[in-house]
Fold this sequence. Notes:
This protein is an alpha/beta fold. About 40% of the residues lie in helices and about 25% in strands. The protein contains six helices and seven strands. It has a seven-stranded mixed beta sheet with strand order 3-2-4-5-1-6-7, with helices on both faces. α4 crosses α6 and α5 runs parallel beside α6.
Amino acid sequence: MQPNATFVLGGAASGKSLWAEELVKSYARPMTYLATGQIFDAEVAAKVEVHKNRRDDHWTTVEEPLDLTAPLTNAQPDQVILIDCATMWLTNHLMAQSDMVQAQTTLITALRNCPAPWVIVSNEVGHGIVPENALARQFREAQGRLNIALAAEADLAVQVIAGLPQVLKGTLP
């Protein structure tokens, strides 16, 4: 049986997005990809192209860097949603100087009210050194709090390391 709420965590370039995509495909339902990234330079544009090229025409892509409420609450019960990724979503809110408590509360509420199964990808940022500047420390703390909240909402929480899933909570389908 497929989980209704899945949290996929990992370091940069750990294979977490690819693993999440494969999990979503296993649902055998219409798939919606909620893309939260914004393209500000050629490097990010190239990374987005890699992600896009992995997805065929069975995916519907919705680009939404800030407000995931509508696409989550308007989802259909027979589809599955992949949000890639919580880290970019958080970064967008920090750069927009959003109220982070409110933004996180709104996201968690939208996930709870989503009628479709969802998978959300996020970066683990707690394994590094303490950042030297205030914005980077603010990001690290906010990402840690967001990851804790997302893991609490999930039926299945998986950390992907070198492309391999390590179950933190729940059972792999």
